[in-house]
């Protein structure tokens, strides 16, 4: 594995019981890259993400994160690997029984030996990074949808992870808030050099964020395209890919494809 | 004339040197600035700048690794120095440092968020009273809804959602049989055993049947079954409706013009009203069998004698009065479970609170109702 590769998936097969979702999926993500996993509903995007972050074990193949095998790690190793990355879940998944600040300080208190005043300062630093200055004493229920996402991002970044995973960051957000979140993701990637892996089907987000993407397909049970989304939109030989990136119903795209 | 250069090495932190020249303190950091080293680094910086009032120049160009821990150190140090009239300039940095510090608004970080002013005693009392009134209002209006719903169910039994009711009957009734059997068997056993110890002293062994029979059918059977149902079914109702409330399913139901009482409450109440007496009958029977085991095994009474004595002691009314009570218990358990469920606000925590409160309230109401029934039956 070359040294600038931070995530490497080799021949991953994912299944729930008898039902196979993904078959023989392989790709790599470079350090500092903004990588997007795209595809229509039910294509296995979220399943792939769950394998990457160690919530599910592969039925076959391997998942390497920073040189360590996530799929075969034991509980102890997995926890250590998981500390290298942060995950922003679709709904934010903030703990409703804690305040926003406590959601972040929880991790700092558990995994570092920082004194309370520095913990508080770092919590504010994180909140400032996601433009939530002054909200640390708020209850989660008091936050709007966009704020919850940003708060979830702040928590995901609490321990300065090298990799950030995002599950559908724009789900449930209005276009403006969604664009702001995309901008924030870009900024964090550029300023901190954090590797960003996003699962999304939102075209505007994909075009903004992705340097490179892979497209999954339900019937193919795997990757049907890989590359820069702008290039895929213009020049993919696969009508399914063009249909997706041009936001067309698949039937029309096929017809256009015949015309080419 | 060049100023005298003083060089000092700060212990504990290996990669930090401070140099004072012409009233400017120049601090050079060459080690990792991360969360692990942050406390020591901050202490070292404070040490180096102790008593220094003027400009501090921070040279961070050779820092190999910099994360939020380092960011916190730099910001905190700069904040402290600015507060005492000094100044911190970052004269050397690298892209990682610039990137991280560029994301942060340094003034906002040190601005205390506005705190709500402490409420005074009178305001607190007022708010408390309003809360009590609101709760009372909710209780009364829910009781009204429940009574109307049940009246409607009696008048038009076809409008009851029997499919759901059937499901709840299975869950609250059939699924609860094993635990009811186990507990009431043990209750019968315990009662008989305790009685035996006293009764044998007087040679009144035979009366163990009276004692077990009456206490099980009149009190222990209905009460234990109701408390089990409160823990099993009342809690389940509260958690289910609470989660539906939190995930806006209750709102969806109301918005579609459907009556939440008919859909959510009536099936549960009807199911429990039908099943709790059945469970109690099971409990009565098994409890009496528990007594039999002690009578036969421990007191050498023949089973026939036990049953003959039992038939003389326990009347139909004893069993019936127990069953009448359970109908009231069932309404209370299911009703309070649903009411608490509707009172859930947001989040997992509130569902937990709701469920706890449902069980506690149900058990309290069961005991209270039992006391009332005892008095009523006494003067009947």
Tell me the radius of gyration of chain A: 19 Å
Taken from the alpha-carbon principal axes, the silhouette of chain B is elongated
Q: What structural class do you assign from the helix and strand content of chain B?
A: alpha/beta
Query: Alpha-carbon distance between the termini of chain A?
Result: 39 Å
User: What's the helix count of chain A?
Assistant: 10
Strand content of chain B: 5-15%
Write down the domain tally of chain B: 2
Quaternary organization: heterodimer
Which descriptor suits the 3D outline of chain A?
globular
Alpha-carbon distance between the two ends of chain B: 113 Å
Query: Greatest contact pair?
Result: A-B, 31 and 36 residues
N-to-C order of helices and strands of chain B = EEEHEHEHHHHHHHHHHH
Strand content of chain A: 15-25%
Query: Radius of gyration of chain B, Cα only, in angstroms?
Result: 37 Å
Mean pLDDT of chain A: 85
Strand order, sheet with most strands of chain B: 1-2-3-4-5
User: Which strand order do you get reading across the main beta sheet of chain A?
Assistant: 6-7-8-3-9-10
Structural class of chain A: alpha/beta
Q: H/E series of chain A, N to C?
A: EEEHEEHEHHHEHEHEEHHH
Number of helices of chain B: 13
Q: What's the rounded overall pLDDT mean of chain B?
A: 88
Write a brief caption for the model.
With 260 residues, chain A is α/β, with parallel strands linked by helices. Chain A has a domain at 98-160. Chain A is built from ten helices and ten strands.
Could you characterize what this model shows?
- The complex is a heterodimer of chains A (260) and B (380).
- In chain A, a hairpin with a 4-residue loop joins strand 9 (212-217) and strand 10.
- Chain A has a 6-stranded mixed sheet with strand order 6-7-8-3-9-10, with helices on both faces.
- The longest helix of chain A is centred in the C-terminal third of the chain and has 18 residues, at 175-192.
- The radius of gyration of chain A is 19 Å and the shape is globular.
- Chain A has a domain at 98-160.
- Chain A has helices at 45-52, 75-82, 100-111, 116-129, 145-156, 175-192, 203-209, 229-235, 239-245, 250-259; strands at residues 5-16, 19-30, 34-39, 60-65, 68-69, 85-88, 163-167, 195-199, 212-217, 222-227.
- Chain A has 260 residues and is α/β, with parallel strands linked by helices.
- Chain A starts with a strand and ends with a helix.
- With 380 residues, chain B is of the alpha/beta class.
- Chain B folds into 2 domains: 6-109, STAS domain (Transcription Regulator spoIIAA), CATH 3.30.750; 146-378, no CATH class.
- Chain B is built from 13 helices and 5 strands.
- Chain B has helices at 38-48, 68-83, 95-103, 106-109, 121-155, 162-172, 177-201, 208-246, 249-255, 260-299, 303-313, 316-342, 347-378, and strands spanning 6-9, 16-21, 24-29, 55-59, 87-92.
- Chain B has a 5-stranded mixed sheet with strand order 1-2-3-4-5.
- In chain B, helix 5 (121-155) packs across helix 10 (260-299).
- The longest helix of chain B has 40 residues, at 260-299.
- Chain B starts with 5 loop residues before the first strand and ends with a helix.
- In chain B, 38% of the residues are buried.
- The interface between A and B is medium-sized, with 31 and 36 residues.
